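Please describe the entry underneath.
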Amino acid sequence: MLGNFSYCNPTKLYFGDDSLKFLGNELKKYGDNVLLVYGGGSIKRNGIYEDVIEILKAAGKSVAELPGVMPNPTLQKLYEGIEAARKQRADMILAVGGGSVCDYAKALSVSVNCSEDPWDKYFIRFEEPECETLPVGCVLTMVGTGSEMNAGAVITNPEKKLKIGHVFADEKIMPRFSILNPKYTLTLPKYQMVAGVYDIFNHICEQYFSGDDDNTSDYISEGLMRSLLHSSREAVKDPLNYEARSNIMWTATWALNTLVAKGKSCDWMVHMLGQSVGAVTNATHGMTLAAVSLPYYRHILPYALPKFARFAANVWDVCTNGRAEEEIAREGLASMEGWMKYLGLVMNITELGATKEMIPDLVKGTLILRGGYKVLDESEVAEIFNRSL
């Protein structure tokens, strides 16, 4: 395992079907004014909202609500949240929802007391906050992003057709606590469930497909992927399988809480490609990743044959006896494609609303990163999008 790194993750997790009862104890650590952030109203239909409000009232909190956080939170919504948090004089932000709501809460945390435009500062110049940030707590209702235990935030600027994520360096941006009750995920529609599953899987792949050294992180990643493959199949067969859904929830957290990134350069180009599709089409994040993954991986496979062959053998149980590396590697990606189709993932960007005429905008909106096995140029990005149609 090469390189040098530090590791700190201060997020406290409460996991299980009794986990919400710990919210009251956590609220005691913060001031009286809470900004409650949530999405489109599903938490009111399934009863989570009433449970959370009851706990907030019992804790003596003054609560202002900010509903309507969309799946791809927009810059305009961020401005709305800044105004609401300032009006409330919020001492903390409580996010109740999926990864987008948690992402949004962290973007809001660093923006409320910032004197500069948050889009320019955090998502164009990628600067760190110099202002006081607000503590964030999360009650997770949908899995996939891993946002409950990391310092990442993603904001979409529809006007500029850009969707950009910023993983902040300071661990104080991570949620101070997150409550993970797998039962909250059981009522998700299948489309959302499998999109979340693929988001988890791709988070692991983005870290796994980098570096050439023998790295402990890769062994952990292979175990997480194998667990996810098994649990996802079980959840598709029986969406109410609590054991499968709890394993998916736990894997999602460990896929992106920075653990398996240690000692890795990390790729993240599938996310850059997928986020560009999301910015133009407003499609579900996990589905944008699924639609571009295989064209991207088949494009970079010649530059990383040993790693893709290892992926095939250790994750997909591809037989390696007497076979060439490229044959093994390609069979691994074919096995991955079969699993994706079994889940019912979207396999092309056309189904998400993208057209050939949009490709120049998609290329323009794709940030090119250097951590993977091949640094793409714009013509390669265009080629991958064409193969994704």
